[in-house]
Each structure stands twice: as C-alpha cells, then as structure tokens.
Amino acid sequence: MSASILDDLDIALMTIDGVGSTRMGSVTIACVPSAAYYFMPQVISEFHKLFPKIRIRVMDASANEVNSAVALGEADFGVSFSGNLAPEVDFELLLQERYVMACRRDHPLATCASVSWEEMYRHDYIALDITSGNRLVLDQALALSRPNKESICETRHVTTMIGLVEAGLGVAAVPSIAMPMTAHPFLVSVPLVAPEVVRNVGLIKRRGRTLTPAALELERLVRKMPLRSAGN
C-alpha cells in the first residue's frame, strides 16, 4: 500500500469521532513571536480538544530562524512574513497587517486617530535591532522617512518592545497582530500613517514535503484564524 493511500486513510480516521482522541505523536510549528502570540493560543486549544495525545512544539524564533527551520525540515511548517525566504520554501498569504504605534494609555499620542512616523519619532521610542526581520521591512518601507533622533534602546523581538512600552520607556512601531486582541489596562495601538506600512503574514512550507495528518490538521486550524478575526 502506497504512503499516500496510508496518509489518506490516517486523515479519514482522524475525522471519525472518538478516533482522533486516541492518536499519538507530535507536530512542530515554527513561528515568529508576534504570529505565535496571535495564532497559537486558540489554535493549540482547539487542536488539544481534538487530539489530546498529540503534542505541539512551538519554535518561536526570528523570521530567519523560522525560515531555516522549515527549509531544514526541523519544523513541519511555519508562520512568518514574506521576504528573504529560502529558495526551497513556499509562502502562502494568510493576512496582511499594518504597523501601529504601541503606547501607554497615558501617553500624549494615545488618543490620536492616527500618527505619522515623523510625529512618533519626536517622542522617546524603542526600535528593533538590525538582525530583526521586522527591521528589514521597516527600513525598506521608510527609506525616505528616517527618524530625527536615535531610539532610547533596541531589542530583537517585538514582544520585548511591547513590554518596555508597557513599563513606560517610550513608544514603538509594532505589527498590529502583536498587540492585545482585547482591551488592555495600560496599552493602546494607534495606526501609523504617512506612509502606511504593511507586512504579509503567511504559511511557509518546504517545497515537496508531505505533511503528516496531524500537521495538516494543525495547518487547517491556523488557516481559520484570519477568517475568524475578520468576522469579529
């Protein structure tokens, strides 16, 4: 019996009530931290209800590390943003998101309908260091809108930036999905304009790799997230 037929049989069995709960194994997904924050809590919760004996391993890492993990087969698939992908990796768009300014509710810009990059840079701000994939996106988009003063500090990950913003050290430009999805007692996000900068977030998979039935089910749940978000 061929491997493809066995996989089809395995997928069919996983959809039968009571059978999925007995399946065992593991699935590895590589995610940039902001995507892990947005996608994985609900995805893991739903997956665990369906397949409680299958363990999910989340590799939260930089875009370059996610790309490498998928290309080398260390992860079944990944969620990252487009740009500088390995030639053996395919990208499939899930959502397009804009960058916003993260700030505390008591910051002077917190009540603005939108803020220009130039205006944000007049205040104390936290930046991403040169190794960050988000830094590359912003440097390319803002080649003509350079800051008029240096940042007070640099971090490698967006999640660290948000923690520093919450502590009151300054404002920061972050992808919108990195911000809390419900009302936060201290933080707000304000759309950044002039220009509006967006990034494409999607699935990355090694070309020619066949996912296991468990990985396919996890991928299906990840795909549902942008649709769920759009419907809220």
UniProtKB/TrEMBL annotation:
Start and end residues of each LysR substrate-binding domain: 24-223
Gene Ontology cellular-component annotations: cytosol
Taxonomy, superkingdom: Bacteria
Residue stretches in coiled coil: none
CDD domains associated with the record: PBP2_LTTR_like_4
GO terms (BP aspect): regulation of DNA-templated transcription
Gene3D superfamilies: Periplasmic binding protein-like II
Name recorded for this polypeptide: Regulatory protein, LysR substrate-binding protein
Provenance organism: Pseudomonas savastanoi pv. glycinea
